[in-house]
Structures are given as C-alpha cells and as structure tokens.
Amino acid sequence: MATYRVNFAKQILGVPFTVGSVDIARARDPMRALRAAELRFARQHGVVDWRERADQAEIAPASGED
C-alpha cells in the first residue's frame, strides 16, 4: 500500500491557489486515496462536499517517496 498527498486548490482569475492538503497513509490505489482525501477534507472544513471549498484536487505521491 502506498502513501499519497492530495492537494486541494481554489482557482481565482484562472490561477490555482492551494487551500489545503491531506495525506493518506495507506491506500490500495490512487483513486481510493483521492476519495478518502476528499471525505477527510470536507470533514475538516465542516462542509458536505469538498467542492464547496476547493475547485480541484490533485493527487501525488507523498514527500519522502522516490
């Protein structure tokens, strides 16, 4: 199982600004990590859907992995 970091960004005038990130310690694949991060981000911000706070979510391997 791999570790992932999902960055959430809000676009303002076409420029993405990172509004938060979530680390997922273990996930079977990137899509499961993305879904888990979306749920955690929404919970952290007290919203039902993560898209209320961000416009895009981008997944990447967490730092420290090669």
Total strands: the figure is 3
Lateral strand order in the biggest sheet: 2-1-3
Total number of domains: 1
Class by helix and strand content?
Answer: alpha+beta
Strand share of the residues? over 45%
Which overall shape is indicated by the principal axes computed on the Cα atoms? Answer: globular
Helix segment count?
Answer: 1
CATH C-level class is Alpha Beta
Which CATH architecture?
Roll
Q: Low-confidence stretches at least 5 residues in length (pLDDT < 50)?
A: none
Mean pLDDT: 91
CATH topology term = Ubiquitin-like (UB roll)
Sum this structure up briefly.
It is built from 1 helix and 3 strands; from the N terminus they run E-E-H-E. The protein has about 70 residues and is α+β, with helices and mostly antiparallel strands. Strand 1 (about 1-10) and strand 2 form a beta hairpin.
3D architecture notes:
This protein has one helix at residues 30-45; strands spanning 2-12, 15-27, 56-61. With 66 residues, it is α+β, with helices and mostly antiparallel strands. It has one domain (2-61): Roll (Ubiquitin-like (UB roll)), CATH 3.10.20. A hairpin with a 2-residue loop joins β1 and β2 (15-27). The radius of gyration is 12 Å and the shape is globular. The two termini are 14 Å apart.
List keywords for this structure.
globular, alpha+beta, 3-stranded antiparallel sheet, Ubiquitin-like (UB roll), 66 residues
